[in-house]
Amino acid sequence: MDTLRELSVTIWQLLFAKKAKTAVRIEKTRKKSFEPEEAVVPAQQVTYLNRGDFDSQKLDKHVELIMVKYEKLRNMTPSTPEFLGEVIDYPEVKRRFYQLPRPLPDFEKLYDEIDSFSKGESAYSPRNKIKKHLKYHPYHPELRAINGIQIFSDTMQSGLAEKKLDVIHQSLVEIGQAMYNGAISVYNVNWFIKIYVKYLEDLQRKILEEYNQVSSNYHWQVQKISEEMHLLAIQITSMLTVKEQLAGMATLTGKLKNSTYNYDSITKSEIRGACQALEGDESRHESVGKSPKYVVWAVITIATLFARAPMLSKLVGKLLNFIPDTSRMLILQKNMVGTVLAVVDYHFALSQGDLSKKIEAAHRIYMRCQHVISQHLGHVSPKRTYEVDPFLKAAWITKESSSLFERDEYRKMLEQSLEYMDSVMESPDTVKGSYDIARKLHEDLQGIMIEFGWSIY
């Protein structure tokens, strides 16, 4: 009995002690929660990021994001032929001997459907019909050009504002590649200009939006990016001057409307045949319904317009190579187009703010014009546009270059340009408007001579 009692007491003490310890631990924990926590001193000194470091890290990510946006906008700028892709030429399609050729669509009907849809006269979009034919003719230039036009028309009818620029970019590349591969018709060229101008306007708007967001940022990298964005916007402003040079294309379109020239692409053989026919060899002219005079006129007008779009500079060179140097008239017209390319380079140098490129471009224009005049117009009274052009361009670039050249060299340029303007003004049958342009340039050049303190003879 005593043994049992002792065992019971022992068990009770153990249980009580366990509960007591638990109660003490809970109480200590409760009190500890109200006491200040002691700092833990590490064995080694640890450097923690302060507020400035955190801001710096976030800023680096922000700079990277801005840089990515800038790179995308720069790559989307149609300032070089690379805009059309590294490989512009379509691959040669080889058909197996047992495959029957698939018929091409009725292009005139497709043109009418595209025009009706783009004008809102019809709700029917021929996009599915175009895709169906592209499945069997993936590298047909005319189909690809029509596809680019339809992509643009669909985009203009849609409300996807956020992705619209990317889709117009796709449309511009599509029609640009198609023209490079031979789809050069009055119809396609007019659509190209419409797409090109719309793309430039939307791209410039996007660049300026991004520029306004970053231009006030103090970080030196962001400031550098904002300056680059500003230069991009200026470059696009330079490219948009193509809108002021559409008179020639408008005249050509009006003259050739509803003719075979409007929709039919002009081929290399047609161009060469027309040039040779103009020189008296009518047997080489193979175009049905196209006169040699109009073929050459169309090609020169289109090439001059393309020369104002830097993304098509390779195509301009290709077209000029189609024209043989068989007469003074053809040589002068080709040189006129080449001078436009040089002027575009000069405007780009201006937009980049690069003085050395600016001087180089100005010198190249002047020397080019001087060479053309001495080689082909030395004893000719300039009458036609392509004859007057080198005289006016030489005087214009001289006027523009007042602070670019050494004094002695610039004085010679001024004196020579004044003589050029005299030649234009003295020509009795000069092309309309040339006299007034020459007279104004003559007055400006004289003013520069006086400003520099040089006598006028």
Describe this entry's structure for a reader.
With 457 residues, the protein is mostly helical. The protein is 68% helix and 0% strand. It has 18 helices and no strands. Helix 2 (51-75) runs antiparallel to helix 7 (186-214) and helix 3 (107-118) packs parallel to helix 5. The N and C termini lie far apart (147 Å).
Question: What labels would you give this structure?
Answer:
457 residues, mainly alpha, 68% helix
Describe the SSE topology:
Elements: H1 2-32, H2 51-75, H3 107-118, H4 127-136, H5 141-157, H6 164-180, H7 186-214, H8 220-239, H9 247-256, H10 260-263, H11 268-278, H12 292-306, H13 313-322, H14 328-352, H15 355-376, H16 385-400, H17 407-426, H18 434-451
Helix pairs in contact: 2-7, 2-8, 3-5, 4-5, 5-6, 5-7, 6-7, 7-8, 8-14, 11-12, 12-13, 13-14, 14-15, 14-16, 15-16, 16-17, 16-18, 17-18
Q: Strand tally, please? A: 0
Helix content: 55-70%
The arrangement of helices and strands along the chain is HHHHHHHHHHHHHHHHHH
So how many helices?
18
Structural class, judged by helices and strands?
mainly alpha
User: Terminal Cα separation, in Å?
Assistant: 147 Å
Overall form: globular
In brief:
The protein has helices spanning 2-32, 51-75, 107-118, 127-136, 141-157, 164-180, 186-214, 220-239, 247-256, 260-263, 268-278, 292-306, 313-322, 328-352, 355-376, 385-400, 407-426, 434-451. With 457 residues, the chain is mostly helical.
